[in-house]
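One thing: can you check what follows?
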Amino acid sequence: MKRKGIAGFGVLILLTQFAIIAFGSGFEDFLGVIGHALTIGGGALLVLTGFDADRFGSRVRWSHFAGTGLALAGLGFSVSGLVGAGVGTESIDRIAAGGRILSALVIVRFGWQIAFDTRHVNFEWMNSAN
């Protein structure tokens, strides 16, 4: 996955969040606002990683921004899962919210690996033979 792909994912997150906000969903309570803010912040950081500079400043690598963006987006998704668990009264609603929270925590973990454990994730590698 190259930086352009990460930026595209960030744009997708931002467009989705703005569509949700435009149609008036998710601002019923404080947790909804927090979830949208975290997700929009994460999407914005992912868009920033699409630039061609190797570093943002002298010591911070772009992978720190990409990892932080994914972690923020994942936290926003997990908060929306908490909101979904509180809204639904059926057990299937709670199960779906639990699955959403678990998936979001996987995104947070992947963001952590990108930011700090870059030996496992090599975004700059490209096979020139292809």
User: Anything to note?
Assistant: The helical segments are 3-22, 30-48, 62-87, 91-116.
